[in-house]
Amino acid sequence: MSQPRHMQLIRFLLEQNTFISAKKIADSLHVSTRTIYNDINDQDFKMLLKGGTIEKRQHEGIKINVTELQKSKIYQTLEQNNEMAINSQNMDELNHLLFLLMAQTQPVSIDSVAAQLFRSRSTVGVLLEQADKWLNTYHVTINSIRNRGILLSGDERSIRLAYKDLCFYSWKCSVTTTGSAHTNDRELFKEHLSRIFSVTIVSEAAAAVEMSETSLNERYTELDFMRMIALLCILVQRVQLGKRIGCAHAFGKNLREKLVAQLIKLHLESTLHALISQEELNEITYYILTTRRNCESLTHKVSLHSKKLIDKFTKILSMSLSVDLNTDQELKLNLANHLYPAIKRMHYGIKIDNPLLDQIKYEYTNIYIAVMTSIEEIEKNEAIAFDENELGYICLHIVAAINRSANKRGIHTCLVCDGGLSIESFLKSKVEHQFKELSVDACMTYDIFQTIRSESFDLILNASGRPVPNPEKTVHIHSLLNEMDQASIRSWILQEEYQKIVRHDASIRKHILFFKDHVNNKQALIKKYGKFLEIEGFVRRGFIQSVIDREKRASTALARGIAVPHGSKELVKQSVILAVLLDKPILWDQQTIDLIFMIAINAHDTENYHYFFEKLFYIISDRTLIEKMKHISQAEEMEQLIFADDQGHELPSEHNKSSIKKKRDQSTSH
Length: 670
Hints:
Blueprint: H1 3-14, H2 22-29, H3 33-41, H4 43-48, E1 53-57, E2 61-65, H5 68-84, H6 91-102, H7 110-117, H8 121-136, E3 141-145, E4 149-153, H9 156-178, H10 185-193, H11 199-216, E5 218-220, H12 222-240, H13 256-272, H14 278-289, E6 293-295, H15 304-321, H16 329-347, H17 357-363, H18 365-374, H19 376-382, H20 388-405, E7 411-416, H21 421-434, E8 438-444, H22 446-449, E9 459-462, E10 474-476, H23 483-508, E11 512-517, H24 522-535, H25 543-553, E12 562-563, E13 576-588, E14 591-600, H26 609-621, H27 623-629, H28 635-642, H29 654-668
Parallel strand pairs: 7-8, 7-9, 9-10, 11-13, 12-14
Antiparallel strand pairs: 1-2, 3-4, 5-6, 13-14
Organism: Sporolactobacillus nakayamae
Keywords: Activator, Repeat, Transcription, Transcription regulation
Domain PRD: 301-408
């Protein structure tokens, strides 16, 4: 059984949103209907489903059923298989063929290719089919010119992109084969490139990249350093072959990266005698702007105004995530380090790939949402909009900061003890060892405690044996902190967290509205519920357009079939979250979505701001709850699920519900 055909079939099924007949599938894949049925019953094919299933219905056809996680794993396998088109047993031959074609300016005969590869014409024919299939993914083709031979055809920028990826694919394979990867990857990669280009080109390209690091006072990440060398080698070789880049990006003459690109241009022209045009100069500038770098010093970059923006950003993030990030100077430095070049990239419409994006959205959903909804102030100040790849990289900085703060203690505690310094020290150390949440900020005798204001403490641990005020936040313990004492402290912490949730659930419950709907596309849903928010007085005119604009810049589709569209905070009058469950999934930026949380939250509502996000994150991160929500029949059931533990508070009255439903129905007619 052909594994490539399995891959084609599974990719085709993933792209369908409904049942499709076996005949249509067979026609699309140029095989028989019997082959399709044999394939889906094949054990190897079933293993590729990663736990998913194939559903067959009479008169309807075939459909693949997979979760978002399973789909992610399948696509990962498909991508790995795409690389295997090159990294196969005949990889050396296929690479040799592709590199040979990349370096040609005139058609080359198949006989000539066969002679250079020491293979027969028929073998070369098979290799050419594989090479053409891979090149097609870059919109590049192998043209056969009658009586002359074969030649690459396509946009020059696309050919160079394929060339660069080929350099890295062959590099990965050589590392895997030889096991030679170690800390000095830069040198090994240069050795690898020297087998593709001349030693002189590689040497001078590497020198130009190192010179640019010095000029920028920054060091490229390891991968981007290697990428820069490969791109410059390709640029020089293609220029020397008489190939020129088409319409290039335009950059201001005083842009720092363009000035550094000018130095690279002068170096390459003087050492390699390559005539580099203005378009190629802009291309080098583009290469530099797409790199990620580690700055040696940021003092010359971060203005007072920029610091204030980053401070405001971390403050809003702290409220959203219920984590204090305001004092994390390392985070602020890293954000400035990342944002400085990222803002430039957005200004010039330059996008960089983030291979971890899907994983970030799935594993750190709450952080991704928080960043996506908190970055508005910086975007507005810089007149840009970050795309989802940049948002993903910013998330990684936040994840690192949260991990650093994981050991910080949040419950300020006072220890009241009359047993002397030894027992006091013992109790303090044991309490903080057993309970990572507690920070024992003060230890004092009962008499001293009577003279202070205890309101500044969240918890009082009383080992004195005598009564103290504020019994609701007091736990009585013994001098040796026995197991019963520890259970009492743990019970108090859990009860306090529960009460905090209940108190704020009561205040935000009326601001989370639930709907079940049959809207069949993304645009219609945004307009319908945006209009509802406007009519109900939650948002100002223009909110709908701000949601649509945000979607154009960065998709709000997340993992688990969820999307979180949101608009400008400045246009929100009253905070609200709309939870909309769809009867059937819809396509939302290449993902199938059936549960939407439309967010309209006013950042100035500091009292409730982070509780809105806390509740939203609680819902989205609970896979069991999400699955239950997706199987309910009435919108009211969603509310009961989400506030199931909140037994002491009434649901909105039937009058209010019918009023909201009536107004929502009215909004659909606009």
